[in-house]
Amino acid sequence: MMLRDFQKIGIEFAMRNKRVLIADDMGLGKTVQSIEASRRSSPTGPIVVVCPPSLKYNWQREIKKWSGENSTIVENDLDFEENEWEWMIIPYSKLAQCVQRHTTTTVKWNRNETEYRRIKHHSCIVKPGSLLDGLMRDDFTHIIVDESHYIKNKKALRSYALGKLCENRTHRFFLSGTPVLNKPIDLAFQLECLGVLGPLFNGWYGFVARHCGMQRLSFGGRRILKTDGASHLNELNEKLLENCMIRRKKEDVLKELPPLTSSSIELDLSNIKEYTKAHTNFLDWLWHSSYEEFQNLPEEEIYKDLSKEEIEMINTEYANNRVRRARSAMAMVKINHLKQLSAKGKLKAFKDWAEDVMSQDQKVIVFAHHLHIQEKIEGMFKDCARLSGKDSVLVRQNNIDRFQEDPSCKTIVCSMSIGGLGHNITAASIVAIFEFPWTTAEVNQAIARAHRMGQKRSVNAYYFVGRNTIDIDILKLLAGKEDAIDIILDGKKGNVFNSLLTSLGDHSVEHNPLRNSRRNTSVSASVAE
């Protein structure tokens, strides 16, 4: 097993700087760089790896492959207490279980002491005797944090737990090909855990004031800071590259990597009447609904039909406006219904296309969002494998192995959230994006499962668009999005939900300062460039 020259440079950078964000493109070997940098920098105690649950077995394999050393996956506290290991792999979900929320209430009187209001203060505490409690007292020096964008939300339990775990560690290697999913604020807590937010940016306040377009607003008698903007992004890129981040793109370092071609395929819907009626009803609701309707509507009633990622997206966008959150959540529920109707109508035509491709001895990775759509696609093809959130991590890995090694297994159906992270699925050279996510980062992650080191053939990514459906609007926004992500990471010029609402005629949506003006971008343009 030979390291490539750019990987050696990454290893040297990590060893020299000790606290680094390895932000290489997906598929360039961030895992092996962090393993080798850790081994070669004289670690004390176990080397701790924190990763998404779906990648824990992959990490165990890579550690054995590159270091020859054994590792343990920590699923309960006894795994830590009863054994001493050279490597410890801890899923984010296990860390989150070590923390609990704590709420206190104070009373604040007005100046005349005639009225008061109760103010709740929310915080987190580490559970005594938990795995995290024990690790915080351990003197291990090295920690690797895979898919570090998982901790972009500072208020999440796993983020708090990781922050405590990183304290006092001399070597902190964070890995993510997409550390910024939407806005510069996504980076703030990652840099804080890395230990560079204070030295480089004068802390959180200094970072958001300089790079997040910070605004001071008044809402309901309270003063709030709005930090979802973007400013001085080229300066941010330069500062990160000079001090703590290394990023290489595939086209720059893998000249021999086969080319990636992206194109769209427009399909007629088999249920076009059903879709058209639903689309008309949605536009009527969008144009005529009033904010008063949502004044007393419980958010929980709407949120039950959204994914965790979608809820987080809305809460981040409208953190201080409950009515806006409720209306946006309802809009997303209705848009998801349209997306599902479009997906349902595309199934028959997609089946014909896929069978033709597989008859040419090609393997196909299919990405879809909704579980029942994934199940319908899986049922259409013989010996189809799957990567689904309803399966255990071990079952998922077995399905990947079967798809990689079994010639009769021609199709694997993946959830965008589960299948798009960290997996190597190079047996396929065709990627089918059947349903579209909300960010370009998710699309790029999905395509990178096939377009990565080890791929010998050119990769074709196809976007399946329902004719005259909302698919076209979403894909145009994804294809034409010149957002802050590229500026921060690559020194050049995202979430498209608000832009989509505006493009459909909802002029009440606040304009995103990052929204670009390229209205005429071709639907078939690559979103992976």
Characterise this structure.
With 529 residues, the protein is α/β, with parallel strands linked by helices. The chain folds into 2 domains: 5-96 and 130-249, Rossmann fold (3-Layer(aba) Sandwich), CATH 3.40.50; 260-503, P-loop containing nucleotide triphosphate hydrolases (Rossmann fold, 3-Layer(aba) Sandwich). It contains 23 helices and 17 strands. It has helices spanning 5-17, 30-39, 56-67, 77-81, 92-97, 131-136, 157-166, 185-194, 197-201, 203-211, 233-243, 250-253, 272-288, 299-303, 308-317, 322-358, 371-380, 393-405, 416-419, 440-447, 470-479, 484-490, 497-503, and strands at residues 19-22, 47-51, 71-73, 87-91, 99-109, 116-126, 142-146, 171-175, 215-219, 222-226, 245-246, 260-267, 364-368, 385-387, 411-415, 430-433, 459-466. Strands 3-4-2-7-8-1-11 form a 7-stranded parallel sheet. A hairpin with a 2-residue loop joins β9 (215-219) and β10. α1 (5-17) packs across α2 (30-39), α7 runs parallel beside α8 (185-194) and α11 (233-243) packs parallel to α22. The longest helix is centred in the middle third of the chain and has 37 residues, at 322-358. The two termini are 29 Å apart. The model is unreliable at 507-529 (pLDDT under 50).
